[in-house]
Design goal:
With 417 residues, the chain is α/β, with parallel strands linked by helices. 33% of the residues lie in helices and 25% in strands. It has 14 helices and 24 strands. Strand 12 and strand 13 form a beta hairpin. It binds ligand EPZ. Ligand EPZ binds next to helix 1, helix 5, helix 6 and helix 12.
Length: 417
């Protein structure tokens, strides 16, 4: 199994280009199920999760062609199977995003329940509740959600909590429903907006995206479209956190700075000098970072997907920071691994009190999930000596060529067997 070997303690310098957003690419790929016509995507990142989504769509009978430079053409002209099997759903929860499109276009879908997850329980009750409100009959049998409907009809749905993929599933389903659907307490994440813009390009009628009330007027069918996936704001934030922790000066290209307001505010508070352009961000950290507390929240709040990286920054900051996780109940596993690097962290429920230390020391650590891995890589870049990060298949799910990009910034990092 691959591991990452990092020899830390060196500032970062140089520029890198950020990839297309994983969490926009996955729902947008599933949106291809809503039409028999082709969907041509560009800026699709080369990631394990994207390959999993391609296999899932391929198994159903969709054609998936991948070209150079992140180009992908999807066409679900004939769908032989409306099944998302357990084997794929358990490796990637986002597979549940086929439920809304399949049900809306074919009137039936069989999707495995995702089950538990390393970062928390993560139920899908809001997806189910919303589709039921739109007229679907959903039964749970032998671990599968069996959904059926003649034709979905528009409904007013108030989500109990803000859910990103829940909003996406219901928004996709509503595009082909009869009448108008109003989603209240909808997620405002930029990836939801990106999906909506793609659906609109396919002919959907959607208003209010980016706010917490989304209105979808159903249409009979959707057509072909070309769509460019937005840049990955979490990859961007991970590089920014790495530069802030390790010090130095880097430039990130092909980014969307306005999707990173909360992250940029926290990094500035920690002492980083940041200049943003239309599609670039320059960051310079000339001194030891100041301790900055964060509390995760739905967008536009501080992203839970940046929590581990911000904890890594806090481990070497001057002062004490409180990191509070409000979205997932078990997303602090990286804290124990960071302690192996010499970090001073006390967990209190869903908060971590991080007392910054002058130096971390390299050690062997183990990644437990995607963003935990990213946090460990950031910590490894700062730690003196060698850090070996195990189980980096988690990283490959969501970061394209991370070690190559960090290498281009002068980090000593390589993949080892
Ligand atoms: C999305 O997951 C992202 N994944 C996650 O990114 C991200 O951490 C998360 O949103 C929060 O921003 C994709 O976009 C593919 P939620 P999602 O539904 O949609 C509870 C990464 O590292 N909930 O917004 O699954 C849930 O348990 C990943 O890239 C219900 O109770 O998250 C959680 O506490 C990890 N019932 C909260 O809502 C439901 O029906 C928010 O989860 C749905 C969710």
């Amino acid at each position: 199994m691959d591991k990452l070997l990092i020899t830390g303690g060196r500032p970062l310098e140089g520029e890198v280009r950020v990839s297309g957003a994983k969490n926009a690419a996955l729902p947008i790929m599933c949106a291809a199920l809503l039409t028999a016509k082709p969907l041509v995507l560009t800026n699709v990142p080369s990631l394990a999760d994207v390959s999993t989504a391609a296999s899932l769509l391929g198994q159903m009978g969709a054609s998936v062609e991948r070209g150079d430079d992140g180009r992908m053409t999807l066409q679900a002209a004939r769908i032989a199977s409306r099944l998302a099997p357990y084997d794929l759903v358990k490796t990637m929860r986002a597979s549940v995003l086929v439920l809304g499109p399949l049900l809306a276009r074919f009137g039936e879908a069989q999707v495995s329940l995702p089950g538990g997850c390393a970062i928390g329980a993560r139920p899908v009750d809001q997806h189910i509740k919303g589709l039921q409100a739109m007229g679907a009959t959903i039964t749970i049998e032998r671990g599968y959600m069996n959904a059926r409907v003649e034709r979905l009809r528009g409904a007013r749905i108030v989500l109990d909590l803000v859910t990103v993929t829940g909003t996406e599933n219901l928004m996709m389903a509503a595009t082909l429903a009869e009448g108008t659907t109003v989603l209240e307490n909808a997620a405002r994440e930029p990836e939801v907006v990106d999906l909506a813009n793609c659906l609109i390009a396919m002919g959907a009628r959607i208003e209010g995206v980016g706010s917490d009330v989304i209105r979808v007027e159903g249409v009979r069918s959707l057509g072909e479209a070309s769509y460019h996936i937005m840049p990955d704001r979490i990859e961007t934030g991970t590089f920014l956190a790495a530069a802030a922790a390790a010090g130095g000066r880097i430039r990130l290209l092909g980014v969307l700075p306005e999707t990173l307001d909360a992250t940029l505010a926290k990094l500035r508070e920690s002492g980083a000098a940041i200049v943003t352009g239309k599609d670039r961000i320059d960051i310079e950290m000339a001194e030891r970072p100041a301790a900055v507390s964060v509390r995760t929240a739905p967008y536009p709040g501080f992203a839970t997907d940046m929590q581990a990286q911000s904890m890594a920054l806090a481990t070497v900051a001057n002062g004490t920071a409180m990191i509070t996780e409000t979205i997932f109940e078990n997303r602090m596993m990286h804290a124990l691994e960071m302690q192996r690097l010499g970090a001073d962290i006390t967990i209190q429920g869903t908060s971590a009190v991080v007392r910054g230390v002058e130096k971390l020391q390299g050690a062997k650590v183990m990644a437990t999930d995607l963003r935990a891995s990213a946090g460990l890589v950031v910590a490894g870049l700062v730690a003196r000596g060698e850090t070996l990060v195990d189980r980096i298949y988690h990283l490959d799910r969501g970061y394209e060529a991370l070690e190559k990009k960090l290498g281009a910034l002068g980090a000593r990092i390589r993949r080892v067997k």
